[in-house]
Amino acid sequence: xQSHLGELAALTTAVCWTFTAIAFESAGKKVGSLSVNIIRLxxxxxxxxxxxxxxxxxxFPIDATGANWLWLLISGLIGFVIGDLFLFQAYVMIGSxxxxxxxxxxxxxxxxxxxxxxxxxxxxLGMVGxxxxxxxxxxxxxxxxADEKKVKLAHPAKGLLFAFIGALGQAFGLIFSKLGMGDYxxxxxxxxxxxxxxxGFCIIITVGKxxxxxxxxxxxxxxxRNISIGSFFGPFLGVSFSLLAVQHTATxxxxxxxxxxxxxxIPASIMIFKEKVLPKEILGALISLIGVTFLFL
Length: 297
Hints:
The chain is mainly α. It is built from 14 helices and no strands. The radius of gyration is 18 Å and the shape is globular.
C-alpha cells in the first residue's frame, strides 16, 4: 500500500475536486467567482491552521525553510491566483463539468514540464495508463455535429480559454509545489500556498475596488454554505492530498489520476444539474478508469 501512496492520494484528490467543482459552480453563479476565491481561501486557511496545530503542534508553518517558502509562494500565486481565478470564472461561464473536461490537458503539460525541470521518469506502464486515461477523457470531450461534417464550439470560446488557462495554472502549480515541498508536511505547505494566494487576491480586489461586493456575498447563506463545503474538499483536503501525492510519485502520474474528475462528475451532472449523459461518455468513463488502474501496476 505504501508503494502506491502517491497514486491513492491523487485518486482522493480527484474525488475531492469533484465535490469542490460542484459546490463552487453553484456558489459562483450566485455571488461571483472573485468572492468564491477569497472566501474559500480564508475558510481553508482556518481549517488548515486548526488541523496542523493538533497534528504538528504548530498552527503556522514557521518551521519551513527559505527554499520551502520561496517555491511554495510562487506555486500559490500560479496555481491559486492565476489558475483558479480563470478556472472559477470558467465554472460560471461554461459550467464545472466542461471546465473539468478542459482540465484534462493538465497531464501531458505536467509530464512534459516535470521531465524538463525535475528530470522525472515515467515507467512504460505509467505512460500506457496516461494515454488510456487521456483517451477515455478525450472520448467524452470530443464530438461531431449532427451532420458529421461540421465541428464547432458548443460553448463560449472565452469560457473554454479561461478553463485552459486554469489547466496551465494547475500544471505549473504542481511542478513548483514539488520543487518547494521536498519532505515538508503537505498540509503546512498548502498553508504557505494559501498565504500567497490571499495576498494576491487582496491586491486584485483592492485594485478592482470589489470589497463591497465581497461583503455583500455573506448575505447569501446558501452560497456561503456551498463555499464552505467546497473549501473543505478543495484547498483543505484536495490540495493537501495533491501535494502528498507529488511527494510520492511523478507529477505526470498525479495529474493524470486527478484528471478523472470530469468522469466522476457525470453522476452529479445528472442528479444535480439535470444534464444528459451520452453512452459514449459512460464508455469514456470506463476507459479512463482502466487507464488509472495501469498507474497502480
